[in-house]
Design brief:
The chain has 294 residues and is α/β, with parallel strands linked by helices. It has helices at residues 2-14, 17-24, 28-41, 58-82, 98-103, 105-115, 128-136, 198-209, 224-231, 242-250, 279-291, and strands at residues 47-49, 54-56, 91-97, 120-126, 142-146, 154-169, 179-181, 189-193, 216-221, 237-241, 254-256, 258-260, 264-273. The strands form 4 sheets. Strands 3, 4, 5, 6, 10, 11 and 13 form a 7-stranded mixed sheet that branches. The chain has a two-stranded antiparallel ribbon with strand order 1-2.
Length: 294
Amino acid sequence: MKTKLHIFKTVAYYASFTKAAERLFISQPAVSKAIRNLEEAYKSTFFIRKRNSIELTDNGKVFLAYVNRILSVHAEIDNYFLSAKNNQPTAIKFGVSTTVASYVIPKVIANYRIQFPKTSFDIKSGNSETIETLILNQTLDFGITEGKDSHPQLQFNKFVKDEIVLVTNANNNRFKNDVVDKKNLQELPFVMREFGSGTRDIIQAVLKSHQVSSLKTVVTLSSAEAIKHYLYYSDNYAFISIHAVSEDLLAKKLKIIDVKGFMIERWFYFVSRTGYQSVLMDQFEKFSKNNYNL
């Protein structure tokens, strides 16, 4: 129920099923089904569906007020009982991979410091390989990385599911209906992340599983942010995290090109040395899972 209420709140905020789906990183049919289930459960119509927009009904406005109160109470309960509120650390130090550092963890940390303002953060960022090396040599105790979860000296706990999508400049009209066959990927000019990037590793692994041997890389850059800014001025292509481009899709700076029969999904993981145990890490992990998408 909590998930459905969060979907409802997001749809109401954006007045759009499509924008809510992009913001929540789920499909539009999943959003529509959640709203339909709520309307059926409460025997009410919450949205007026118009041709190009939606708006809340009077019942929908009342329901939104209740939803805001319920979600606020949920967050308070979770954070009080799951975060050991009376025993918060004065400082938390960990590492995060580049994509997580830019698009996922800032909101979590901001929410944390609103509730626990005496806690400070020291965060190291780099590609996944760099962060995992810092954990292995005990410079860091834990971190959040992307891509593979197979290093024998590290333990991985799932944090956030991610989808890597093919994007290009919003004005690039090369493909009809913005759909391309995977066999044509090798013909396109690509912008790629550097070697050692978890994003690059997972892209190459999935391409290989689909018998796509290699891509024509014309530019290599060291962050998703740099790739996005390059694409603002170019008709090249890039595989990039949906978390990184959600704002650009809403602003119509970039657009997604669907690849037939092809999807790249991965997880962001909390990572620590095998056997490492920490109350601080466990508490922060629970808080992060409860707050990353509020």
